[in-house]
Amino acid sequence: xxxSYQLEKFSLARRALMLPHPDGEAASIVSAFFExxxxxxxxxxxxxxxxxxxxxxxxxxxxxxxxxxxxxxxGLYKVRAGSLTTDEKLELSHLVDELAHWFGxxxx
Length: 108
Fold this sequence. Notes:
The chain is mainly alpha-helical. The protein has helices at residues 4-18, 25-40, 50-63, 76-83, 86-106. Helix 1 runs antiparallel to helix 2 and helix 3 crosses helix 5.
C-alpha cells in the first residue's frame, strides 16, 4: 500500500515539532495538529496494523478539543496545545516520529 500523503503530512508534523516556531511552542504544536488532521482526514485505518491504529488513537487524543473554551479567540487547537504537559508533549512528539517512520517504511 502506498501512504505517500500520510508520510508527507506526518513528516511535516514531525518537522513542526522539531524546529522552533517564531510564535512559540504552542504554535509549533498547532502546526503539527493541522498536518495530522489532514493526514487522517478520510484515512481508512483498516489499511494499517493494530499497533499503528493505537498510535493514531493516542495521537488524536492529544488533539481532542471537546469541552475546551476559547475566551481569547485564539483557536481550540492553540488552547489544547497550551494545555499539554511536558510529558504529553514528549509523548506526542514520539508518536508523530514513530508514525512518520512507519508510513515511510510502508510507502516503499
